[in-house]
Design goal:
475 residues
């Protein structure tokens, strides 16, 4: 994750960076040159807070189609000299994904760019995955020689090739190359790499690392602590907790409590998680103390351990801790939002307002608080939910705010639900398809477009059809 530079939410660029439906609507109404400039800015400078989970590629590809936008800027970005040195996927991943969607819509220029980049670009594996879904066999077979030329005929090169074959997200190109009779040398190298990958997995299974049956509680805690001495450090307290569950008995409770209170950092984190998962009577007091520890590993483990608790005692303690201003207070607010009763609504609403004022609209705890406002149907939370919807840079959080507004805001169907039909997240479009008023002509047109678009998700199209098809009468 990284922190991109996001423009104000009221600007065209800010709307497009957030992936809001209003971004598309404003872009189509703006001068074409201005809209294309903003669109290119988004595609070439990925605006997502978490580029691995947030969706933008289909959203931007559809806008390229609507604006009849050229791909010159994307081409210059992909083949810039920086591509030789900056091999991070986030530099080119969004542009390649956009090209993939454009290729599926029949844009031959996008397909040609993907083929060229797969042959010569730094992030060639991503381009190859896009082509694996959209190119024909002939196009993929032509890439076999240039792709394998990246791997020299040395032990290191063959090992790198085996790793590339093993880790490929889409195996189709490699399978084609392995069976290509017109390029026997390429086919032989790919088959050997496939066999090596299978052998490597088998070897790892024969040489497992970590705890063994018969280990004691002390040995498990020591193993967790040893991970911090490695370079780079390994945080083993989560798997160590599972191991501790397997080896610990009632007679070991005292030793585990002592480790949770006074142990080394990783051992302490392991013991805290174990006690919380087993609802030990002392777990909550130990968590409260550890949450204030200066060691980040210990404090974070204490908060996470509390978040995972499902007991009534944890919920009662959350009502006490919800007024805290630290991470434990945020966890308590999130627990009440997810599991609290109707009489906790005022506490959840107070935490929601306080978090937005103090931390803004991208605070991590807002995900649970926004969900809680919808789950508890807190009607007076609608104004702050609208604010979160407009301002957050996270398209996932915006979708959660939209879902909460559907449960709390009577004006949702005629307001935000309309723009949500153009949103970048399919779950948000699905929500809009079920709620947006069909009295708006734009809604009907967009619903029909989504129903006919082969790139649209099946869940969205099912929601669209439910608006047009009459319900089957029950007998």
């Amino acid at each position: 994750m990284f922190d991109p530079d996001i423009a104000p939410s009221g600007t065209l660029l800010g709307l497009l960076q957030r992936g809001r439906g209003d971004g598309t609507l404003h872009a189509l109404a703006a001068p074409r040159a201005e809209a294309l400039a903003a669109l290119n800015h988004c595609v070439l400078r990925d605006p997502r807070r978490d580029w691995q989970v947030e969706n933008r590629s289909l959203y931007y590809a559809r806008l390229y189609l609507d604006l009849d936008g050229g791909l010159d800027e994307i081409e210059r970005h992909l083949f810039h000299p920086d591509d030789l040195f900056d091999t991070a996927e986030e530099r080119t991943g969004l542009a390649l994904a956009v090209l993939g969607h454009l290729a599926s819509y029949g844009r031959d220029d996008a397909l040609a760019l993907l083929r060229r980049y797969a042959a010569t670009g730094g992030n060639w594996a991503w381009a190859l995955d896009e082509l694996a879904l959209r190119d024909d066999d002939a196009g993929l077979l032509a890439l076999g020689a240039p792709v394998l030329a990246r791997f020299p005929h040395t032990p290191e090169g063959e090992a790198a090739l085996a790793t590339a074959v093993r880790d490929a997200f889409e195996p189709r190109p490699w399978r084609l190359w392995a069976e290509d009779r017109r390029a026997p040398e390429t086919a032989a190298r790919v088959r050997a790499a496939q066999e090596q990958g299978s052998f490597d997995r088998w070897q790892r299974q024969l040489r497992p690392s970590g705890p063994r049956p018969g280990w004691s509680v002390r040995e498990v805690l020591d193993w967790a602590q040893e991970g911090l001495l490695l370079h780079p450090a390994q945080h083993r307290h989560v798997p160590a907790t599972r191991c501790l569950t397997a080896v610990a008995g009632p007679e070991d409770r005292g030793e585990i409590i002592e480790a949770a209170a006074f142990g080394a950092d990783a051992a302490r984190a392991t013991a805290l998680r174990y006690l919380a998962e087993h609802h030990d009577p002392q777990a909550l007091d130990l968590i409260e103390t550890a949450a204030a520890d200066p060691a980040r590993l210990v404090a974070d483990a204490a908060v996470t351990a509390f978040e995972r608790m499902r007991s009534t005692a944890a919920l009662d303690r959350a009502r006490v801790w919800v007024h805290r201003t630290d991470a434990l207070g945020g966890a308590a607010a999130g627990m009440l939002a997810c599991r609290g009763a109707a009489y906790d609504s005022s506490l959840v609403l107070g935490a929601l307002r306080r978090t937005v004022r103090a931390e803004g609209c991208d605070a991590p705890v807002l995900w649970d608080l926004v969900d809680g406002a919808g789950r508890l149907s807190i009607g007076c939370a609608a104004p702050v939910l609208r604010h979160v919807y407009r301002e957050t840079s996270s398209s996932h959080l915006r979708g959660r705010a939209a879902r909460a507004l559907a449960a709390t805001d009577p004006a949702f169907a005629t307001g935000f639900a309309v723009e949500c039909l153009w949103d970048c997240e399919e779950s948000t479009r699905e929500l809009a398809a079920r709620h947006a008023t069909t009295a708006d002509a734009r809604v009907v047109d967009q619903l029909r477009r989504l129903a006919a678009d082969p790139a649209e998700e099946a869940e969205v199209q099912t929601a669209v059809r439910s608006r047009f098809e009459p319900e089957t009468p029950t007998v």
